[in-house]
Write a structure and sequence with these properties.
About 40% of the residues lie in helices and about 20% in strands. The protein is of the alpha/beta class. It has one domain: Peptidyl-tRNA hydrolase (Rossmann fold). A hairpin with a 2-residue loop joins strand 3 and strand 4.
Length: about 190
């Protein structure tokens, strides 16, 4: 079985270690742990790994966050992967820092990357894992906050949270969305 694992973020060194790039950061950690490297391909950086008999196609869209749907749709079609086997990793301002929320459908909650995916796919029935980045910013400062780098306090526990997210991705591919939700939500 094949799975499309989508890490949302923005390309470029200026975005590399920002809160908005948690999807890229998690996929980089999974690729490193699997001793594989991303290659630049159409609309995304891509690599494949095998995990317990499953093929995971990892993509980091190169279309920038707000146009992620184009890359997602292209790779779903190219790899002939059903939407039910897609898992999107994204940041979430409405969750406390480090909280995981895994769902198999739902709205974009104002996230431009998810909004574009929903617009291109024509629905919101796909699996996603939201990572809480909190909302500790002054009114009007949201963009600077999400595009800002992690605080020292956040960095102290970020590696542990990334490791849990990698395990959640592997769980999604092996035990399914329901059991993955039950095991990882809120952690």
């Amino acid at each position: 079985m094949k799975y499309l694992i989508v890490g949302l973020g923005n390309i470029g060194d200026e975005y590399k270690n920002t809160r908005h790039n948690i999807g890229f950061i998690v996929l980089d950690a999974l690729a490193k742990a699997s001793n594989i490297c991303f290659e630049t391909k159409r609309y995304a950086s891509v690599c494949q790994l095998k995990h317990k008999g499953r093929t995971l196609v990892l993509i980091k869209p190169s279309t920038y966050m707000n146009l992620s749907g184009k890359a997602v749709n292209y790779w779903l079609q190219k790899e002939k992967i059903p939407v039910s086997n897609m898992f999107v990793i994204v940041d979430d301002l409405s969750l406390p820092f480090g909280t995981l929320r895994i769902k198999y459908k739902g709205g974009s909650a104002g996230h431009n990357g998810l909004s574009n995916i929903e617009q291109i796919l024509g629905n919101s029935k796909y699996n996603r894992m939201r990572f809480g980045i909190d909302n500790k910013f002054k009114t009007g400062n949201q963009t600077n906050y999400v595009l800002g780098e992690w605080t020292i306090e956040e960095k102290e526990i970020l590696d542990e949270k990334i490791e849990k997210m990698v395990k959640a991705i592997q769980g999604f591919a092996t035990i399914g969305i329901e059991r993955t939700m039950n095991y990882f939500n809120g952690k």
